[in-house]
Amino acid sequence: MKEKINKYIADISNIDIKSIDDYNNFTKTYLSKKGVINELFSSFKLLSPNEKKIVGKDLNILKNLASKKKDNFQFKSKSSNKHTNIDLSLPSSYDPIGSLHPLTIVQRLIIDVFLKVGFNISYGPEIEDDWHNFSALNMPENHPARDMQDTFFINLNPDTLLRTHTSSVQIRYMESNKPPIRIISPGRVYRKEDISARAHCLFHQIEGLYIEEGVSFIDLKQMINYFLQSLFGKKVKTRFRPSFFPFTEPSVEVDIYWGLETETDYKITKGTGWLEIMGCGMIDPNVLKNVNIDSKKYSGFAFGMGIERIAMLIYQIDDLRLFFENDINFLNQFKQKNY
Ligand code: PHE
Questions:
Q1: Are 20 and 54 members of one domain?
Q2: Is 73 in the pocket of ligand 1 (CB under 6 A)?
Q3: Which of 35, 98, 103, 299 is most exposed by smallest CB count within 10 Å?
C-alpha cells in the first residue's frame, strides 16, 4: 500500500491542471467518493495499528497534495477567467471620460457666487426679436446705440436676430414677473465682429438683474465687489469706469488689472494693463416703463459680463480663439479642474 501511495504522490505532482476538463478528470480520479484516495482510506481502516502507523502519514500527504492541487486551479480560474464571472444584470460602472470645457467650469463658478446671495437662474432664447434685444432696452429703431453691437439678422419682417447680449432676458423676465426680482442669466450671444485674440462672433455672457424698493448704486457696487473678490480673491485690483448703455443710467464698465509686462499683455489690454470684464448700471426708468414696472416705487441694477474674459483672467489664457478650436491639448489641461 505504501508503494501505491508513493506512486500516486509522484503522479499527482506531475499533473498539470490546465482546463476545466483536466480539473474534472482530476477530481473524479482522485477526490470523488469512488476516487483513489477514498478507496485508499477504506483499505486503511482495515489495516492493523502497526501498518496504520507506517502508511498513515503518507496517506495524509497524498490527500493534502490532491486537495491543494484542486484548490489552486479553482483559485486561478476565478481571477484569470474574469469574463466568465461577469454579472450582466449589474448596473455598469461609471468611467468618466473627457472633461468639462473651461468656459463651462468658469460659468459654474460665477453662477455659484450669485446663487449664494439669493439669485435664481433664468434662461432666454438665442434667437430673439427686435423688441427684447433692442427696443424695450431703450434702443428704439435708428437709435445710434444699436451701432455698438453689430447684429446678425435672420429676418427683417418679422424681425428675428441672434441676440447680441443677454440683456434681452431682463426684458423677458420682467414682462412675466413682478419685483422683487433677483436673477442671473447665462448664455451664448452673437455679434458680427472680426475674430481676433480679443473678440469673437460668438461668445458667452452672464446677465444679472436685481429690482426691489430702494436699491441704489451702492448696492450695485457692493454686489460687484463681492462677486469679484469671491472669484479672484480679496486682493483683486479693479476699477469702475463711467460708461454708457441705453438701458442703464448711470452706467459703468468694470476693469480688472491684468498686467503690462509682456508683448501679449500689451495686445490683450490694448496697452493699458486693464481688461474690461463687465458693463453695469442702474436700470433706466424707461426700461421699467416698457415692462410695466412702477419706476417710482422700484429701482434696480443690472450687469452683464463676458465669460471668456473672466476665463482668460483665471487661467491666464491670452487668446480667446482657443476656447472655440477644440484643440485636445488645450482642453486636456482642464481635466483635473472638473467642477
Ligand atoms: N448688455 C451689455 C453688453 O453686452 C452689458 C450690460 C448689461 C450693461 C447690463 C449694463 C447692464 O455690453
A1: yes
A2: no
A3: 98
The predicted-structure confidence for 162-219, as pLDDT tens digits, reads as follows 999 999 999 999 999 999 999 999 999 999 989 998 889 999 999 999 999 999 999 9
Structurally, the chain folds into a number of domains equal to 2
Q: Predicted confidence band at 243 (pLDDT cuts at 50, 70, 90)?
A: very high
pLDDT in tens, 181-195: 999 999 999 999 899
Average pLDDT over residues 106-112: 96
Indicate if ligand 1 lies below 6 Å from the C-beta of 165.
yes
Side-chain half-sphere exposure of 197, counting CA atoms within 13 A: 13
Ligand 1 pocket check for 280: Cβ under 6 Å = yes
Distance 281 CA to ligand 1 centre (A): 8
Our answer on whether the CB atom of 279 is closer than 6 Å to any ligand 1 atom is yes
One domain for residues 163 and 43:
no
User: Which residue lies with its CA nearest to atom 7 of ligand 1?
Assistant: 304
Do 106 and 42 belong to one domain?
Answer: no
Helix axes 307-315, 102-115, angle to 10 degrees: 100
Q: Is the pLDDT of residue 80 over 60?
A: no
Look at residue 137 and tell me if it is in a domain: yes
Ligand 1 centre to CA of 133 (Å) is 11
Distance from Cα 280 to the centre of ligand 1, integer Å: 6
* Atom number of ligand 1 nearest to Cα 278: 5
283 Cβ below 6 A of ligand 1: no
Does residue 320 lie within any of the structural domains?
yes
Q: Probe ligand 1: pick from 147, 245, 277, 284, max atoms within 8 Å of CB?
A: 245
